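Catalogue entry: protein

Sequence with per-residue tokens
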Amino acid sequence: MHHKGYFVWWSLSWALIFFNPALGQENIYIPDSTIDNKNSYTSYKKLLLYSHKEDLSDPRSDHKHNIFISYYHLKAPSDTVFKYMRQAIDFDPVTECDLIFKGDYPFIKICSRFYCPEKMEKVKNLCDSVYSSFDSTLIDILSIIKESDQKYRADQKYSPWIKGNESYWEEQAIIDSINILLVNKILLRHGYPGRQKVGRELEDVAFMVIQHADIKNQEKHLYIIKNAVEQRQLYKSAYPLLVDRIRMKKHLPQIYGTQLVHNKKRDRLELYKMESLEGIDELRAKYGLSTLRSYLERTGAFMPEN
């Protein structure tokens, strides 16, 4: 399984780097409510003021992105918007450049609102340098690995739970054993091939191969996946996915509720046994995962019966 998680423009769930003046802390500039921003004013003002409740040292926090996008929606002056746009790019270059230049609307709308060609040219040059720094050789190798990793995983008709598909998964197991050897060599030579090396489209290829490898390789590389997440080289949900996969292989209850199993007796997908359901949605949210109920509804899986 594979979750992209990436940063939603209108997200209200993560912190910023300012503090609420009502608490006697650092002042924060909040634009006035006007006819131009009244529809979104309350929610984005709340996002700014909510920042003091978040742990800003947490690498999972999207606070710099949220500052930039909040000021954009609050119709702040161009200098303010561009200042925090630049900080967001410095914090997570690939993600922000993708959102600005590969998203459906941000670049065009920012240009049309402010018409600041000099500022936008600087941003464009900065993002061009981000993309030009990608490792083209790694991109080619990981593209091939990704295709082979998903050979029988990408189509439900090859599901391992369907009788008669055994030969496909025997072949996939051989492919997986070759892929983990390649990924081990990449890790040894390059470190984790993440977002700043290969872009968001391929940042999770090494993770997927590790996720599909034997327990020895999974445990060996867990700290690498954890570090990649903390350094924003890999989406947040990768870490809990691997933790739960390892625990399932060791016949231990999972922690984050990411793993499903096929109940042969009832012929249905079920959630693999949990260590605890207490506070599970808050725990999942920290890693960009949906609520457990939403996850089960989306996958068509059931809670296990005692």
In short: Residues 15 and 55 are 8 Å apart (CA to CA). The mean pLDDT is 85. The radius of gyration is 22 Å. Residues 166-190 form the longest helix (25 residues).
